[in-house]
Amino acid sequence: MVRRWLAFHPQRWERVVSIHASIKRRTAADVRAAKGGEKLVALTAYHALGASLADPHCDILLVGDSLGNVLYGFESTLPVTLELMIAHGRAVVAASSYALVVVDMPFESYEQSKEQAFASAARIMKETGCGAVKIEGGVHVAETIAFLTARGIPVVAHIGLTPQSIHTLGSFRAQGRAEAANLVRSNAPGSIEADADAVAAAGAFSVVIEAVVEPLARHISDKLTIPTIGIGASAACDGQILVLEDMLGMTERTARFVERFANLRPAMDAGIAAFSSAVRSGSFPTQDSLYGVKA
Ligand code: KIV
Which residues pair with residue 231 across a beta bridge? Predict the structure, then answer.
């Protein structure tokens, strides 16, 4: 509530600054307690600029490994390293003060053993100052989630479409169609519902559900006692997340579930084109933007 007021009264800046300074950063426990309450707002943030823009409006900032695609132009998230996640995580923590910062555990930083996962997650927590990590996977990472949470590392799980498994999934299409057609048997081993049950039982304080057919995502959200964060899942989820650059209309191609809440790419293109022609025509820089010599 206070944060909404802050966002809509920029003219009361001094008061805003003092109130904002006294607002405590959200914790994993706060997010956990939001189940069934006001919807959780989450966006990805990869750098200080994105974090400073999104922080006043969000409960969670996710330093997603999708930065590999969006910032570095990788074909998948597989080449993203622990060092890269730590560098970006540190920038996002430094540039935010309200939202809980969650850093993705990249491919190859947790799969070998729960001990490897602890070493990677501990580095992320210590070197970035973030409040939680996120791990892709369901039943097969449940033991790891339990190991981390027992050792003081809050974990967000990520089920459904898990981009680090693109080579076994085969494509980025929606998950759980067959399972949704027969919800009664859907908690069979290997199902998305079984994944949801396993990560919740293991101690994850929240779970991202990505690209899962709506009835199944709704069913899981209704069933779990931890908050679900949907991305291409269901309006019934306890919160929603999108990639910042996608929802601002900066990226060229996006998944079907992305709604553009702004259309920045054409404006950015026009600005760059205007700069380019001003430089070529010699109309920039003008005298006004140059330094004179003081007498
Ligand atoms: O890496 C990422 O950005 C994510 C979100 C899409 C949930 O995992």
Answer: 210
